[in-house]
Write a structure and sequence with these properties.
The protein is 33% helix and 24% strand. The protein has 169 residues and is an alpha+beta fold. The chain has 2 domains: 1-35; 38-160, no CATH class. A 5-stranded antiparallel beta sheet has the order 3-4-5-6-7. It has a two-stranded antiparallel sheet with strand order 1-2. A hairpin with a 2-residue loop joins strand 1 (39-42) and strand 2 (45-48).
């Protein structure tokens, strides 16, 4: 009788432990699902981050007034470093200004998709829009010239802030 009681208690403990683990897994799934950003906020207001398809990526850039060629000029895999050096910290400052933060993706692998910008004002050099994409969402990026001593800035160009408002593209 004493042995049977120990077995029943042991079965209850194992069942309770399994149930607790399952509850934690389900809770983690819902917390992580809610943690995925679908919008961000910058100088132009709130903007969508969807970038799973080519059409979504082109529409993403159009939110900021950028016109780009229909197809990307490059698609590459990029590893966000676990710890940032001076250069990555400076690049992340650009992201923070646009309502994004690469620290949230440290140690992750993402895609960099680059498009040729066709309406960059007052320049003869080639300009690309670079999007960092993780799980179908833009997590960062920039607008940059391809020249060695060129320029780089966030998605918003200072002079275009007044011209472009989200939803008016």
């Amino acid at each position: 009788m004493f042995i049977a009681t120990k077995r029943i208690k042991k079965i209850y403990l194992i069942t309770a432990a399994v149930a607790a683990v399952l509850i934690l897994i389900v809770c983690r799934f819902f917390v992580c699902a809610d943690g995925v950003m679908t919008t961000a906020t910058s100088q132009i207001g709130q903007y969508q981050l969807a970038a799973d398809t080519n059409e979504e990526r082109v529409a993403f850039l159009a939110q900021f007034g950028w016109e780009v060629e229909d197809e990307p000029v490059a698609i590459e895999t990029v590893n966000i470093p676990q710890s940032f050096n001076r250069i990555y910290n400076r690049y992340n400052e650009i992201q923070l200004e646009q309502g994004l933060d690469l620290h949230n993706y440290a140690g992750k692998e993402c895609k960099r998709v680059s498009y040729r910008v066709t309406n960059y004002p007052e320049t003869d050099c080639t300009v690309n829009a670079n999007l960092l994409i993780y799980e179908g969402r833009v997590i960062g990026g920039d607008i940059a010239s391809t020249e060695i001593d060129g320029f780089m800035h966030g998605f918003v160009l200072e002079g275009m802030v007044e011209e472009v408002k989200v939803g008016e593209t």
